[in-house]
Amino acid sequence: MQPQYQMGYDRAITVFSPDGRLYQVEYAREAVKRGTTAVGIKCSEGVILLVDKRVSSRLLEPSSIEKIYKIDEHIGVASSGLVGDARLLVDRARVEAQINRVTYDESIDVESLAKKICDHMQVYTQFGGARPYGTALLIAGISEGEVRLFETDPSGTLLEYKATGIGIGRPAAMKIFEEEYDPAMTISGAVHLGLKALHAATEGKFDVGTVEIGVIETQNPVFRKMEPAEVKAFVDEVEFSPSETGADQGE
Amino acid sequence: MQPQYQMGYDRAITVFSPDGRLYQVEYAREAVKRGTTAVGIKCSEGVILLVDKRVSSRLLEPSSIEKIYKIDEHIGVASSGLVGDARLLVDRARVEAQINRVTYDESIDVESLAKKICDHMQVYTQFGGARPYGTALLIAGISEGEVRLFETDPSGTLLEYKATGIGIGRPAAMKIFEEEYDPAMTISGAVHLGLKALHAATEGKFDVGTVEIGVIETQNPVFRKMEPAEVKAFVDEVEFSPSETGADQGE
Amino acid sequence: MQPQYQMGYDRAITVFSPDGRLYQVEYAREAVKRGTTAVGIKCSEGVILLVDKRVSSRLLEPSSIEKIYKIDEHIGVASSGLVGDARLLVDRARVEAQINRVTYDESIDVESLAKKICDHMQVYTQFGGARPYGTALLIAGISEGEVRLFETDPSGTLLEYKATGIGIGRPAAMKIFEEEYDPAMTISGAVHLGLKALHAATEGKFDVGTVEIGVIETQNPVFRKMEPAEVKAFVDEVEFSPSETGADQGE
Amino acid sequence: MQPQYQMGYDRAITVFSPDGRLYQVEYAREAVKRGTTAVGIKCSEGVILLVDKRVSSRLLEPSSIEKIYKIDEHIGVASSGLVGDARLLVDRARVEAQINRVTYDESIDVESLAKKICDHMQVYTQFGGARPYGTALLIAGISEGEVRLFETDPSGTLLEYKATGIGIGRPAAMKIFEEEYDPAMTISGAVHLGLKALHAATEGKFDVGTVEIGVIETQNPVFRKMEPAEVKAFVDEVEFSPSETGADQGE
Amino acid sequence: MQPQYQMGYDRAITVFSPDGRLYQVEYAREAVKRGTTAVGIKCSEGVILLVDKRVSSRLLEPSSIEKIYKIDEHIGVASSGLVGDARLLVDRARVEAQINRVTYDESIDVESLAKKICDHMQVYTQFGGARPYGTALLIAGISEGEVRLFETDPSGTLLEYKATGIGIGRPAAMKIFEEEYDPAMTISGAVHLGLKALHAATEGKFDVGTVEIGVIETQNPVFRKMEPAEVKAFVDEVEFSPSETGADQGE
Amino acid sequence: MQPQYQMGYDRAITVFSPDGRLYQVEYAREAVKRGTTAVGIKCSEGVILLVDKRVSSRLLEPSSIEKIYKIDEHIGVASSGLVGDARLLVDRARVEAQINRVTYDESIDVESLAKKICDHMQVYTQFGGARPYGTALLIAGISEGEVRLFETDPSGTLLEYKATGIGIGRPAAMKIFEEEYDPAMTISGAVHLGLKALHAATEGKFDVGTVEIGVIETQNPVFRKMEPAEVKAFVDEVEFSPSETGADQGE
Amino acid sequence: MQPQYQMGYDRAITVFSPDGRLYQVEYAREAVKRGTTAVGIKCSEGVILLVDKRVSSRLLEPSSIEKIYKIDEHIGVASSGLVGDARLLVDRARVEAQINRVTYDESIDVESLAKKICDHMQVYTQFGGARPYGTALLIAGISEGEVRLFETDPSGTLLEYKATGIGIGRPAAMKIFEEEYDPAMTISGAVHLGLKALHAATEGKFDVGTVEIGVIETQNPVFRKMEPAEVKAFVDEVEFSPSETGADQGE
């Protein structure tokens, strides 16, 4: 799926290729495809985000590999791709949320926030002097009782999913979701499905200790990261069969 | 129809080719030709916009693939091409409409709005540092009782049509319109014709569930998107014969 | 007449070729040569502008292909070349005319306006970061009783003609004018000559329905576009012989 | 005399060649050498400027080919090279003259004005982002009783001549002047010499009807363009022998 | 591990390679890999930083090779890579710390400071006109009783470690830490481990006289550089066996 | 002495060559070497500047070839190289001198002025977007009784000489000075030596009529250009032997 | 030691090479290596700076070849490399010193000043649009009784030495210092050592008349340049043996 050398049409964001493609945006998507896997799942009780933090050394503090961020009381985000880019977008999202609170004295609508982030990302696909963001975000939240789960990509495209994944394991995770997703799941069921997807996305090299889970429930629409113990309890409940391991996530 | 490598005259918007062409604008048009199909049809009772949203996965929320946008009470827009670019143009159109309301205390003329959008798009074909917009718009509305349907393209050209299409299925749709368009049609007749065009544009791979229809009627000049049920009722009325499938939309 | 690949001297407006030419300006002129034909003719009673709008589809609203524009009470313009560029120049001309009215409380002199437009176009032939305008204009008007007809081109050169043409059919039209132009013609005679020139310019593929005519008369120095009926009356009067068809307009 | 391809040292005004030349300035001079011929001659009674306007078509209004411009009461200018560039320099010269009047309540010194124009032209030979002016000027005037005749070129060099020429016919004209110039000539004698030079410069293809003459006399130091009749009277007086035709102006 | 020539995708920070990499950032990391070794170690009593200053000549004043900097009362930094870049980042860190004191009347949180530095470094990986920082930092400090040890790199990535190293000897140092690190160590034990790591990192070419040690203890959370005598005492305690010498730090 | 094509290191002022040279500055020096010869000589009574104006045509007014300029009462300048550049530097020098008068109510020190000019020239050797000045200056003057003679070059280097030359004839002139210069000379002796140097510099093609001489004497420290008669008197006194003609000035 | 052509990684300061080097900075160092030799030596009584001014002609005023500059009462600087660049840095240093006096009413610390200069130089190694400084400085001074001797280079690196050299003769000078430097030397001994080093650096082509010496003593911490007589006295004391001539300074 990796594009070939494209006769120079791929060297600048301000240049279309003869077939109307923006190669630099496509290359930025490749940076996302090299990132750690993150998945998001809507369910009957709310929406969850799961990431596998891929901690490579026992000397690393797992808490410092932040892949799930709280944006506002009712919104959380998971990222994949360039870490520094993600941090910038998260900061921007937090500021936008605060501006909304200060200006209108109410929390920002999840979709409005997602659009603002995407508009910002689009600018980096049209103007020279900078590169596109090499990061994708899953934006999960609840506005006026409605559960939302958006996915952005480096082009500034915004789509809403019932369940989706970003990063290196996206193909494996999506295969699981296409087959097994059920909107009637509880939070617990969604977490089980998400862990299964992450397990498939990592070809079974699943490290329980570094899964991070974010959740927001309709009952109590406040986004929170689960405590390690809570995560561990879920992980212990799941049994992974060898057949659940995806084989095509290496793209 | 795809241009070949052009000795470097095609790398920047600020460079004419020896035969007076702006290749980057032509390449941006290719981005539109790769987009989803949208059609617009004027009729005796008003004007309609139809798009096929091409929902590729059951996990995707179809509502998030927005291709028809309400700009102001009396104006709607359908887009094809780069999604992020379209969103930007739509935002700009909405702001222009609001500025007109605030400044003159009346709704903006459909043609004035279309020209403002085109002037903005033209700038990106003359100045360096950015790329042209990779998007086309159908702008439909009613001003002072007159039904209008404009089409823009990345060069900033503005044309008014009785019926037209943009995106990958434009050739197939135009063939249908050339043969069957009748200005005396009712809204209902226009929707039937539009569905037929979309059906041809997709080579029969028509997904009823993801057609989106926008409409504004002379009787009640307020642009609205039809409810899914309303759309479904229309779709159920139409029968598609195999012979109506266009074969040349792949250009 | 089309220039060949010029060793890179033709890639930027800020670069002279070794023989002192600005290739980008010459390439912009090629964009004009690819445009629709427009002609202007001075006569004893005033000055007229004629364009052939080349409407390619019955679905297109001919009124939306604007090639003749009223600039001020006493000035009209016909354009050929890039449509978006022409619209920008026309807007600029209208603003200049209004500024003159507001500042000096009188209508702008036709030549002053033409020079302002040309000065603006010249800037795009000397400074980098943008391309020259790919459009030519015929500027017709009456100031202090004097009938004026100017032609601009992408270099910002300004010339006044008794009769002239721009666009793809210029050579054929000029051949007609060189042979048959007579300054003593009436408006009616000028229109006949203009139609003959357009007919030759289109190699006989003349579409009566899409000719647009602008006129300003010394008697009543107000520029106006003729009504379709008025145009049709003129067209019906003219008989086109095959020999009047130009054969060299393809340059 | 035309420079060859220079290994890329000739692509930007900000780059010296290894032998210390600025090729872009030299190429701009080539643009002047392709221009129409203009000559200037000081004499005992004042100074004159003559140009051959090379009117190529009977449809063209000769008055619109302006090559001699009045700058201020006491200063006139003749140009050769890019027409749009000349118009800009002339506008600048007029503004400088007016600024002097307003600021010091007296007319600008001819040499001061010429230096200001040259300083402006020099900037375009040192800074990137623009090209040099492709035009040369002859600046003629009288300050404090002294007759002045300056020549500028694209490099911003300023020289004063007794008699000189610019444009395609410069070599032929200079040959005439070197042989026949006499500072004791009257205006009438100077015009005769100038016409002879123009005749040589055009290889005998001399068109009497399109010669334009500007003059300023010490007696009445007001620059004026001669009326066509006045010009014709002079032309009628001169007899051109074949041997006076220059043969080397094609450089 | 050194990347090869990459078809031009590696010449600008604003260009992604086809596989989504930013080569200029990776090359900046190579500048860090060529730097002197610095290590940081958290322990039960606080956190330490050690650097080997590689003094190449007896004529050099060792004190002028600054590799450990005090940022604020409670924060210190060790650097590796381009010296001038490090000094700039250190200055920036000091200013950020002061701004926090002045604005909130309290000392800056270690993690907040580290993020601010990383955000600054990220900007140089996204915008053209400058190069990324060719430096890495170890940021050690204590906020609200918590011991922190962060590592930044040219991409603006921020990670927290229990023990880590930067510069040419990182691989050798990390091998020691993976095998022998124990969070229960005292400051004294940590210094011993750090010296062992530096010894391995320099392939035994260890110069006791130029080791610099920074320390901050939980008991008295003030960052300080150890006096030479204090350093010497530690060094004298350690015995280096040949087998502890790393052999792969040359990468 | 002319540098060869240098693998592209010579195309921009912002690029050093691998051996630490700035080729664009060296090429600018070549522009000076192509200029007319100017010499400056300090003597017991003051300092003089001489230039050979190389008047190429009897039609040229020699007075317009200005190569010696008065900057302030006590300072004069001779230039060689690009004429337009010299005029700019001279204007700048005059303004600096006036600023000093206005600010401190005293005349500017010769060395201070020379440094200011050089600092200005240096900027054009370090920043992109412009080229270095293609001109050298001899700056002669008297401050507080001290006779000064500075030479600048395109790099912004400033040196003081007892006697020196710039332009095409520098080698020939310097050979004369090395052999014959005597600081005890009178003004008259210095002029004789300068004329001899100019004679050698022009390989004997010496044109008495176009020598220009500037002088400032300790007795009356006011810089002035000598009257033509005064110059002629000096020239008449000198006899040029063939052996004094330099043969190596063609470099 | 001269780098080879580096596949284009060496054309801009904003580009790292694949092995993490900034070639433009290294090339700027080559400019320093081509400069005249300057040495600095700390001793028991203060610190001295010595330069060999390489006066190439008897016509040159040696005083105008300034290589040692007084910055403030207590600080002096010696430079090597591009002369114009050095002058700029010296001016900047003087301004920084004055700013400190005005702002804090005390003289600037030598190290603070050196850092400010280096920070300024670093900027030119990170941002495009300019080149790095092609100059190195030795900064000598006394702050609060402490004798300081810093060396800067084009990268903005700052090191303090007991004795060091810059310019073409650095290797030869450093060899002398490594062998013979003794911190207990008196000023007189230091001057003797410095002269020996310069002698070696010039391969014996030592010109006594153009040595310049700057000195600041702890007793009277005011930087001054020695009078020529004082310098001559020192030079006369030293005897140079052939064996002291370095042979490797040509690098």
From TrEMBL, chains A, B, C, D, E, F, G:
- Highest classification ranks of the organism: Archaea, Methanobacteriati, Methanobacteriota, Stenosarchaea group, Methanomicrobia
A Gene Ontology term for the protein's cellular component: proteasome core complex, alpha-subunit complex
Q: Which NCBIfam families match?
A: arc_protsome_A, PRK03996.1
Question: Per UniProt, which keywords does this protein have?
Answer: Cytoplasm, Proteasome
Q: Does the UniProt entry include the keyword Nucleotide-binding?
A: no
Domain of life per record: Archaea
Q: Where is the Proteasome alpha-type subunits domain?
A: 9-31
Alphabetical list of Gene3D superfamilies matching this protein: Glutamine Phosphoribosylpyrophosphate, subunit 1, domain 1
What is the protein named?
Proteasome subunit alpha
UniProt activity-regulation remark: The formation of the proteasomal ATPase PAN-20S proteasome complex, via the docking of the C-termini of PAN into the intersubunit pockets in the alpha-rings, triggers opening of the gate for substrate entry. Interconversion between the open-gate and close-gate conformations leads to a dynamic regulation of the 20S proteasome proteolysis activity.
Source species of the chain: Methanofollis fontis
